[in-house]
Structure formats: C-alpha cells, structure tokens
Amino acid sequence: MDLIVLLFIFTLAAFLGFELISRVPSQLHTPLMSGSNAISGITIVGAIIAAGADDDSWVTSVLGMSAVILATINVVGGYLVTDRMLAMFKKKTPAASAARKEGRA
C-alpha cells in the first residue's frame, strides 16, 4: 500500500512539474530556474541525511551518495547558468567589441 501511495505522489509531482514549467514564458525560464536551483540546496541536505542513514543497507548508501552528487550538479549548474545570464548584461569594453567586428574573437 505504501508503494502505491509513493508512486501516486511521484506521478502527480512529475505531472504538476511538467505542466508548471511548460507554461513559463521563455524570457522568464532562466531567471526562475536559476533562482529555484539556489533553493534546491535543501535537496543536498536531504541527500546527505539519506546517505548517512544508519540502516546497514548498501542500497541506501549508494542511492544517498548518488543523490548527493546529482543535487550538487544541479545546484552548481544553476549558479553557472545564472552567472552566464548576468554576464550578458555587462557592458562590453571597446577593445573587445572592435576585435569581434574584425573577426578576431
């Protein structure tokens, strides 16, 4: 019975997440996702708790460690996207723009 409830919650969350993300305009997608990735740091905390669970099961340790790795990649990727997005708004130096016009960059 517990497995059925968990599968139902997972399916509902996946469907809801897909519907929410698909309705976000493309102009807002990157800022919203990079902000939510910062909040996803709490996922790392949960993954560390799962990896450190003391139930003498190697499956729990492997799944917990993979959750830590994947959550860390998610958060770091979010910050990289944010950095790249903010770099688009920085003023370019005259030398860099002249080099681009000449085809050297």
Protein traits:
81% helix, 105 residues, mainly alpha, 5 helices, elongated
Separation, N- and C-terminal Cα atoms: 61 Å
> Fraction of residues in helices?
over 70%
Overall 3D shape:
elongated
How much strand content do the residues show?
A: under 5%
What is the number of domains?
1
Counted by DSSP, the helix tally is 5
Helix vs. strand class: mainly alpha
Low-confidence parts, pLDDT < 50 over ≥5 residues? Answer: none
**Biggest sheet features:** none
What's the β-strand tally?
0
Mean pLDDT: 79
Order of helices and strands: HHHHH
What does the model show?
By secondary structure, this protein is an all-alpha fold. The protein has one domain. Helices cover 81% and strands 0% of the residues. The chain has 5 helices and no strands. Helix 2 (26-39) crosses helix 4 and helix 3 (41-51) packs antiparallel against helix 4 (58-87). The longest helix has 30 residues, at 58-87.
Could you provide a short overview of the structure?
The protein is mainly alpha-helical and 105 residues long.
Helix-strand blueprint:
Layout: H1 2-22, H2 26-39, H3 41-51, H4 58-87, H5 94-102
